[in-house]
Amino acid sequence: MLKRNLWKIVLSVVITAWALTTLLPMKDQDFAKYAKAQAGAKPAEFAKLVDEAVALRESGQAPSDYVALRQIARARRIDLSVYFPQFKLEETLKNVEKRDDLVLHELDRMRKSKLHKGLDLAGGVAVTLEIDERAATADNPDVRKEKISKAIDIIDKRINEFGVSEPLIRAVGDNRIEIQLPGINTKDNPEIVDLIKKPALLDFRVVNPNVTPGPGVDAPPGYQEMTLDNEDRRGETSSEQLFVKRIPEMTGKAIANSFVRADMYGKPEVILQFTKEGKKQFADITRTIAESGQKAGRLGRLAIVLDGQLYSAPTVREEIDSDSAEITGTFSDREALNLANVLNNPLDLPLVVKEQYEVGPSLAAGAISSGKRATVIGVALVAAFMISYYTLSGLIAVLSVTLNILIVLGVLASFGATLTMPGIAGIVLTVGMAVDAHILIFERMREELRAGKSLPAAFHAGHDKAFTTIIDANLTTLITSLLMVAFGNGPVKGFGITITIGIFSTMFTALIVSEMLLDFSIGSQLMKRMITLNLPAPKINFVKYGRRAFTASWVLVLVGVAALFYQGHKVYGIDFAGGDVMTLSFKQHVDIAKLQAAADSAKIGEVMPVYHSEIGGGLETLNVQTESGKGEAAVKAFQAAFPNAGYDLVGQTAIGPSIGKEIQWNALMAIGLSIIGIMVYVAFRFEIGYGFGAVVSTVHDVLMTVGIFVLVGRQFTAPMVGAILLIVGYSINDTIVVFDRIREELKQNPNLNLRDVINLATNRVFTRSILTSLTTFLAALALFIFGGGVINDLAFTFLVGIVTGTFSSIFIASPLFYWWHKGDRKHVEAHHDIAPKYEWAGSSRASD
């Protein structure tokens, strides 16, 4: 027993230790104390600098210890890297300020919890960008609107490249873009704001070969004086003045792609790959420069200018008919990567930073507390049920699911993920679904015991028979989650990442950890018999009632869809439809939860109050986001409910949807491709009749959930897209279990007709379906009762999805399979496949 489980023990211990290590530290540590402790050289000398920084911050001359230490280092030209030899900075990076920034950034990163809190939990940074009117006055409103929409999509791509989770990006008015970045602060990450707003206006210009700047030398007509900063291999810097043509010969539109590579000295350089037209233009420019240089008796030079800054001015000896070129400069590896990213996503609009705010959490302390309470209660309910129903087996399942959560959090932490309340809700719901694998195994074991097998034999047979079903069910859900990652943005992508991790951790814990623990329990005689409660299998003619159930459910679906079309844009929340933002000054701070309650009492609809404070100090204001036309009503409601708060309206503007058209299209693409992918997979693993039943039942579940959601008067927000995609995965998971059993019963009962086989299979998995749905329902119910705001909406959606998914797998998918084959078993056998065997499933059965 020990021999066959040794590899599982080692693997489980290693993964558990890795997950725990990855999650440390669990909380952010004080920057000053942590920095002192990390100094690898001259610790006493560095501690004095830190103490000075703390004193500077306490005196109000710096907003934080981080900024104060940077100010001291820059004022005295101190190279902080000498105190941290362990950081191994690039030897070619000689700029002291850049070295200091990298050291401070690394210290700040290391002191923080690996799981960052999101904007709704801990706040972040809000940046408002405005179109530079001096460069965009010629645009008509339609063109400007189109450019702003494109800019939102490009900024979203840039931020995703930077690694920020679940950003919010939307248009404000007709000339601004608002960006909210969770878990980010500008004092520690100043480069991200520059990266966001860079228009990346790349020009290739001619350097005047005849005249160079000097005392009393004026710029020739059509040229301007520009400065080129150079750094040699020894790190020594110098500057050169050049006369560069004002009008470019070629722009960045000629660039097809850009990436970073190291030159022969190990310094980063950005490689530009030209389009077909760009290659021709570049050949023409270099030919002209080479010819003019020959006439002047010196080598001509080509200026590479980005956003008005001269990056490089290489000499040109002859025409260069090449597909690519290089930009060299004094940038670090990170700066080179940012530059390449910007060049791959060039903005047409020149943008300037209008406002930068530190954003308070949109969820009040009470709401965060209730969310945590809902999480604990949801997990506790699932654990209590499993232990009550399956006793020792249930306890093993709970231990396995606990490790499952630990692994999911560990992987998220290794990615530097930002944890938000919707993300926490997704983890809780994943717990409910993860229990399904254990219930499948336990129910299979009970069947084998009822057939007269011993406990060890029932254990091995139950695992073997559940293995294929668990793999199929999780792989179909994986199709959905991977498409969410590929096509989703913000919360949708976050959901997809969490679920993808959860699928692999669930299969690991259920098929390896739980099996190992059960094997030891049975082999050591700790579990002499499997004690469980008993929910008897029914004897229902599901096929008989299939037509009536099918008709009744689709009538409800049509009613919901009709309600959706009738209400039109009213069903869209602020994320989809935009709204109003009212900026209020105040004298008394009122808790967010109380403001939400006042808005609910006034029946204003969706309201999102958020406290803003300008970076670097300044007046704190309350920004209230509402549906279009509801802003003034919200202000009056707050003024009436809290007369002593002194609310005064100081600003009002309209905001665009945070989910742009491309993001909406991507979400629809994810849903559509998920359904197609599921059909292809099921048709491949089973046959086309199963695929048809699976797709129709999944579409049924999505439409019914959406319809009920609309009928009860709720509105769609960004996380709801992820919730609907979750339903797709959950629905197909349940359907696959039924189909897998039908396929098995067809093999084992060659004399039964198709109707009897479907009824037999459905009745035998009915108990499992009810138990699985109940555990998931308990987890979602806790979120629904104790979670507020978006958590309540997510939980409600999933509660409906659990019911519809269980119903459709029994009364929609199976009857459709029956009708597809016209009730003829021979028709099934003519198209049926043989279930594949997973070889390693049986390898663990080897004897000691």
From TrEMBL:
Residues 354-517, 652-822 form the Protein export membrane protein SecD/SecF C-terminal domain. Gene3D superfamilies: 3.30.1360.200, 3.30.70.3400, Multidrug efflux transporter AcrB transmembrane domain. One of its GO terms (cellular component) is plasma membrane. InterPro entries: SecD (IPR005791), SecD/SecF_arch_bac (IPR022813), SecD/SecF_bac (IPR022645), SecD_1st (IPR048631), SecD_SecF_C (IPR048634), SecD_SecF_C_bact (IPR055344), SecDF_P1_head (IPR054384), SecF_bac (IPR005665). GO terms for biological process: intracellular protein transmembrane transport; protein targeting; protein transport by the Sec complex. It is a multi-pass membrane protein. The chain crosses the membrane at residues 6-26, 379-412, 494-518, 549-566, 663-684, 691-712, 718-739, 770-791, 797-820. It is found in: Cell membrane. Residues 237-344 form the SecDF P1 head subdomain domain. Residues 149-208 form the Protein translocase subunit SecDF P1 domain. The keyword Iron does not apply. GO terms for molecular function: protein-transporting ATPase activity. It comes from the Bacteria. The keyword Cell membrane applies. Keywords: Cell membrane, Membrane, Protein transport, Translocation, Transmembrane, Transmembrane helix, Transport. Forms a complex with SecD. Part of the essential Sec protein translocation apparatus which comprises SecA, SecYEG and auxiliary proteins SecDF. Other proteins may also be involved. Forms a complex with SecF. Part of the essential Sec protein translocation apparatus which comprises SecA, SecYEG and auxiliary proteins SecDF. Other proteins may also be involved. PANTHER family: PROTEIN TRANSLOCASE SUBUNIT SECD (PTHR30081:SF1), PROTEIN-EXPORT MEMBRANE PROTEIN SEC (PTHR30081). Part of the Sec protein translocase complex. Interacts with the SecYEG preprotein conducting channel. SecDF uses the proton motive force (PMF) to complete protein translocation after the ATP-dependent function of SecA. Belongs to the SecD/SecF family. SecF subfamily. Belongs to the SecD/SecF family. SecD subfamily. This is Multifunctional fusion protein. It comes from Horticoccus luteus. The lineage of its organism: Bacteria, Pseudomonadati, Verrucomicrobiota, Opitutia, Opitutales. The gene is secD.
